[in-house]
Amino acid sequence: MRKDVEKMGMAEELTVIHRDKDGRILSKRVYPKDYGLIHNLLVKLGLRHNTMTATGFAHTAYLLGDKDNASASYGYIAIGTNNTAATVDDTALGTEVVRKTAVFTRLTTVKANDTAQWTATFSSADNLTGTMTIYEVGVFNDSTAGDMLTRIVYAGDNMNWDAGDTLEIRVKVQIKQGT
Question: Which residues does 115 contact at the CB level (< 8 Å), separation at least 6?
Answer without folding.
Answer: 106, 107, 108, 109, 172, 173, 174, 175
